[in-house]
Amino acid sequence: MPTIVVEVMPKPEILDPQGKAIANALPHLGLTGFTGVRQGKRFELTVEGEVTEEVLDSARKAAAEMLSNPVIEDVVSVAVAEDQQTA
Amino acid sequence: MPTIVVEVMPKPEILDPQGKAIANALPHLGLTGFTGVRQGKRFELTVEGEVTEEVLDSARKAAAEMLSNPVIEDVVSVAVAEDQQTA
């Protein structure tokens, strides 16, 4: 069944303590070269049947109204996952 | 600065109560046509300088050892975000 992937990230001006903690911990694993980490969310919506423009609109509405908090988060992308088999 | 995006999802056989709650709530928003929702994580690693194969290897190591729990999660992708300006 097709899957729509919704990606949500904290807005750039919002502090992200989880990302910060990861960024600080990476050097302890010997991993340098990264100046920052931001943690967001990724949703996979399984679609019943075909992905029509109407279904994509529903997914965009879900992303804006349920999957993200518009005060602190941006919806980075709403896209069909073509060949993914992770859902 | 270039950004490497790491995507992590719960393994298919692992229960995902957050995703389930979202899937159950979508019809209340008038959004039908979705049979399931899975919630995972999305990380943006900001790279200092150029993205070399070595930096990508570091990102893959971070994804496997710090950004995901291999018992319950799969690393779905580790990729360079070409034109993204969200970090």
From TrEMBL, chains A, B:
<keyword id="KW-0963">Cytoplasm</keyword>
<comment type="similarity">
    <text>Belongs to the PurS family.</text>
</comment>
<keyword id="KW-0547">Nucleotide-binding</keyword>
<dbReference type="GO" id="GO:0005524">
    <property type="term" value="F:ATP binding"/>
</dbReference>
<dbReference type="GO" id="GO:0005737">
    <property type="term" value="C:cytoplasm"/>
</dbReference>
<comment type="subunit">
    <text>Part of the FGAM synthase complex composed of 1 PurL, 1 PurQ and 2 PurS subunits.</text>
</comment>
<keyword id="KW-0658">Purine biosynthesis</keyword>
<dbReference type="InterPro" id="IPR036604">
    <property type="entry name" value="PurS-like_sf"/>
</dbReference>
<dbReference type="GO" id="GO:0004642">
    <property type="term" value="F:phosphoribosylformylglycinamidine synthase activity"/>
</dbReference>
<dbReference type="InterPro" id="IPR003850">
    <property type="entry name" value="PurS"/>
</dbReference>
<protein>
    <recommendedName>
        <fullName>Phosphoribosylformylglycinamidine synthase subunit PurS</fullName>
        <ecNumber>6.3.5.3</ecNumber>
    </recommendedName>
</protein>
<comment type="function">
    <text>Part of the phosphoribosylformylglycinamidine synthase complex involved in the purines biosynthetic pathway. Catalyzes the ATP-dependent conversion of formylglycinamide ribonucleotide (FGAR) and glutamine to yield formylglycinamidine ribonucleotide (FGAM) and glutamate. The FGAM synthase complex is composed of three subunits. PurQ produces an ammonia molecule by converting glutamine to glutamate. PurL transfers the ammonia molecule to FGAR to form FGAM in an ATP-dependent manner.</text>
</comment>
<keyword id="KW-0436">Ligase</keyword>
<keyword id="KW-0067">ATP-binding</keyword>
<dbReference type="GO" id="GO:0006189">
    <property type="term" value="P:'de novo' IMP biosynthetic process"/>
</dbReference>
<dbReference type="Pfam" id="PF02700">
    <property type="entry name" value="PurS"/>
</dbReference>
<comment type="pathway">
    <text>Purine metabolism; IMP biosynthesis via de novo pathway; 5-amino-1-(5-phospho-D-ribosyl)imidazole from N(2)-formyl-N(1)-(5-phospho-D-ribosyl)glycinamide: step 1/2.</text>
</comment>
